[in-house]
Amino acid sequence: MSISIAYLGPPGTYTEAATLAYARDLPSETGSQPLLCPCPSIAQTIRSVAQEQAHLAVIPVENSIEGSVAVTLDTLWQLDTLQIQQAIVLPIRHALLSQALSLEPIKTVYSHPHALAQCQKWLENCLPNAQLVPTRSTTEALQYLDQDHTAAVITSQRAAQLYNLPVLASAINDYPDNSTRFWVLGKQPSTGGSHTSLAFSLPANKPGALVTPLQVFAARGINMSRIESRPTKRSLGEYLFFIDLEANAQEAFVQAALSELASHTEILKIFGSYRVLAIESPDVGQE
């Protein structure tokens, strides 16, 4: 039976490119090719695995320019059954697709909010009067381009090839070293790796409440590559904390740290240890 992998669609998104890269990296003994299942939103992509509609899900978690993807963190916290299988780092190279012959007629630009923000300076300089319309993915609005020649979409070069649409401008992201980190989620325990992700809430909002849990890692020389706060949604000023460790949770000293951490937190969720796959080209699978 084929492995089904949910991802943020429609086809042509950067999440699909990360999914294709992950599929190519799977061991050959898995047999048949994975079944790719596009989903209309990030939350639905994640929930498709929790509800056993797909075996795995690939979702964006952090962009080097715009930071964390809040809906990914919030949804993962709400669910108790998912584990991170792998991280994928993909370079992002945005293009502007349109049926217009030049930039002058463009009145509306569609794309995912992160993509619009990653091209903010370019848009201000080249399309200062265009209306920016956020969509659930970078390919959702491509359907509008055939009917509206004053519309444009910020998406990938691969999307232009898939949908046979003209590229009006390329490499329009404001920073050339733009990349997004994705997680592969599943219900099976992860097999270990170089990084571990977790999240916790605190029993009380008081001075030093966060310092004590963080000292658990500092005392053992465990480096935190990321720490992010998200509101608990219970009360103003209460937060959850998401942390990435450069360590394998299967190591004894990391297990000791996590055991001590549990005594200083209200709720502790460990999302697993995993390896990181770095992709060189954003146009994986364009053929």
From the structure above, extract its key features.
8 helices, about 290 residues, D-Maltodextrin-Binding Protein, domain 2, alpha/beta
What can be said about this structure in brief?
The chain is 24% helix and 32% strand.
Percent of sequence in beta strands: 25-35%
Number of helices: 8
CATH architecture of the domain at 4-91 and 178-186: 3-Layer(aba) Sandwich
Uncertain stretches of 5 or more adjacent residues = none
What can you see in these coordinates?
- Strands 1, 2, 3, 4, 5, 11, 12, 13, 14 and 15 form a 10-stranded mixed beta sheet that branches.
- The two termini are 25 Å apart.
- α2 runs parallel beside α3 and α7 runs antiparallel to α8.
- The protein is built from 8 helices and 15 strands.
- The mean pLDDT is 91.
- The protein is 24% helix and 32% strand.
- It is globular and about 60 Å long.
- By secondary structure, it is α/β, with parallel strands linked by helices.
- β1, α1 and β2 form a beta-alpha-beta unit.
SSE topology sketch:
Elements: E1 4-8, H1 14-25, E2 35-39, H2 42-50, E3 56-63, E4 67-68, H3 70-78, E5 83-91, E6 95-97, E7 108-111, H4 113-118, H5 120-126, E8 131-134, E9 151-155, H6 157-162, E10 167-170, E11 179-186, E12 195-201, H7 211-218, E13 224-231, E14 239-245, H8 252-262, E15 267-278
Parallel strand pairs: 1-2, 1-3, 5-15, 7-8, 7-9
Antiparallel strand pairs: 3-4, 3-11, 5-11, 6-9, 6-10, 12-14, 12-15, 13-14
